[in-house]
Design the sequence.
């Protein structure tokens, strides 16, 4: 698949690297096509890995993954260009974390709205799916790192076909079907983003490596 | 221990009943000392179980447990009387759920504040500990109901001694020490209350009985 990863941070690099390994055509998009982090990533990733601008990356992609900082995501997607997002599967893994008052951050969108829904409203023809925002990058691409993969990832989105594409990609990343929890429509992204404060607290008090996750247990 | 349970709903009744079984002196408090639900509960619970007003229940108690609806909690605690809360361990299990726009509810306090912190500010001499708000009542008093008890409960509070009392009571309820996760100060209540939207989504999509919980897994 042709996948554009928007964002050059740890989450973007980790996901981009894994998708190259899996045989996908990956372009890392950033504000500047010559962004040294993206260029260096593309050179070291090999294969068909490329670096480009946000719009250059989005243009040819079938799947676009937003791995920019949550508070910068709308701007990044505007740069990518609305026309380049139309009809595309847009995976939103970002969290709207507001660090302006220090650590731990608060949420810049919360409660009766979410970043994912905001993106969907601004780009109504994109097919937004929220996933993977509830864990550290290492686990996203390698669930086996923790408890043999016996923990959960969530998906939320209004477009069933787009969600099916995302579930397929999660399977390629190593997520077992039984651990991919479909929470329904994109408004469930509120719940997934509001989980972040608990994740941050656990990181602070329990495991600063961030290599932990939650597993749903039931009777 | 002398325990006041404020609130006559399912959470209050379930916790009150269990604490009676454990040999505690439990008084169920409500707006009206003659509240039929509380009177009936006290009669059927036997032992030293009593029904009283919020203030009557709080007055003699060593531990006060807020199991009222989150949006009514401040009013209930005002009725209990500030002087009756001073120096007491005040366990807050409530969630600030706002159902005014239907289901699922939003949160009436969120992000940079929490119900538990609000209570602590209004009653500065109470020793507030947040716990048990992240699961259905049946599980609070019987963690073994699910996965042999292999799942987690959280505590947050600024008073270490009060937190130790609460951890002791959680142990009596059946929670193993390794599954009681101390998230630090009372500001962590934000994270615990903001988890509720995810709990509600899981209830809606995964298990409407509510008999599920999360377990933290790590490497």
Sequence:
């Amino acid at each position: 698949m042709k996948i554009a990863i928007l964002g050059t941070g740890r989450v973007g690099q980790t996901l981009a690297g894994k998708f190259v390994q899996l045989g996908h055509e990956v372009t890392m998009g950033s504000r500047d096509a010559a962004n040294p982090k993206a260029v260096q990533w593309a050179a070291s990733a090999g294969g068909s890995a490329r670096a480009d601008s946000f719009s250059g990356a989005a243009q040819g992609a079938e799947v676009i993954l937003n791995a920019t900082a949550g508070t910068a995501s709308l701007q990044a997607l505007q740069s990518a260009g609305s026309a380049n997002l139309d009809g595309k599967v847009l995976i939103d893994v970002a969290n709207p974390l507001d660090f302006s008052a220090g650590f731990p951050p608060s949420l810049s969108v919360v409660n009766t709205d979410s970043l994912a829904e905001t993106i969907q409203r601004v780009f109504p023809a994109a097919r937004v799916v929220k996933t993977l925002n509830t864990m550290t990058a290492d686990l996203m691409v390698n669930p086996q790192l923790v408890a043999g993969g016996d923990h959960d990832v969530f998906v939320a989105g209004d477009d069933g076909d787009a969600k099916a594409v995302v579930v397929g990609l999660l399977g390629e990343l190593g997520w077992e079907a039984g651990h991919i929890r479909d929470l329904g429509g994109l408004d469930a992204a509120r719940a997934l983003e509001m989980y972040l404060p608990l994740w941050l607290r656990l990181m602070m008090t329990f495991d600063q490596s961030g290599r932990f996750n939650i597993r749903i247990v039931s009777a």
About this structure: Chain A touches chain B through 40 residues (CB under 8 Å). The radius of gyration of chain A is 16 Å. The mean pLDDT of chain A is 97.
